[in-house]
């Protein structure tokens, strides 16, 4: 049965009963518009959609698709490998075959290993991109890496923030404000006092500059033009911003924003305006694990003849640096500066005090 391809399947899906065989088949066909599938990949997908059918039934549905349904400009191909394992691949007449396996794997690594903080709440948008990219390149060899691209790339999402659809909608407004270079006013500064410049006044406007992803969370970088200061705040629905129509010229601030980041490790506020020569050494285990990681653009990592790594960089002292050292405390020796040693020890003392209960 040859059908026109201009979206009839989407309309049909909307009108099919949820547990109707034809509805299931059209949902499967819709999934094939995003990438090829094996039986295992498709079964994993339908399970996540809440569709309760067996693999045997699923195989029959795929067989029906192959024999009985064809949309104009689209053709379903079935490939078998040397183990007689089948791959179902939809190809589009007007697509190209310009992607190599390396290109395909690169896309799926980014697509599937992207953090939940960025993916959750935007899956419908990602699906549109999946379909668009695949329809343009479906003649590439997607069938060669179906299982690994769909089942083997993952992200642990350990300690990552979870954002609701409402928060992503709110983020869109902030993104739009940054695009238009609109000034904003923070309505609840008391919630974010630890992130704000010391001389901040609540009636003053802020300039939203960038959206950043850091340590499992989305952050917003601002300029406080009244004091020529820059700072970052973790994004959430609790960040109450009043958007305005007052505009600013970003060219006046971007170079200074980059200087601000150069003096910070991560994004949290520095404890003062000083920049220090930071140096610490790692034991053998952490040297092996951490010696190839990025910490700061000025970093210098050396490994001595015994295998101990020493890390040096120039930055301010903030919670990101303190928590980094506390996280690896069992295998780290802070060499300098003394203020960093004292600050880390003060946090350890606070931990000891917390055993008695919070005051």
What would you note in describing this structure?
By secondary structure, this protein is α+β, with helices and mostly antiparallel strands. It is 39% helix and 21% strand. It contains 13 helices and 14 strands. Strands 12-13-11-14 form a four-stranded antiparallel β-sheet. The protein has a three-stranded antiparallel β-sheet with strand order 2-5-4, with helices on both faces. A hairpin with a 4-residue loop joins strand 8 and strand 9.
Query: Could you give the order of strands across the largest sheet?
Result: 12-13-11-14
Largest sheet: 4 strands, antiparallel
Number of strands: 14
Separate helix tally? 13
Structural class given helices, strands, pairing? alpha+beta
What Rg do the Cα atoms give?
Answer: 27 Å
Instruction: Name the helicity range.
Output: 25-40%
Strand content: 15-25%
Terminal residue distance = 73 Å
pLDDT < 50 runs, ≥5 residues:
6-17
Q: Kindly state the mean pLDDT as a whole number?
A: 89
Oligomer: single chain
Shape: globular
Summarize the helix and strand pattern as letters: EHHEHHEEEHHHHHEEEEEHEHEEHEH
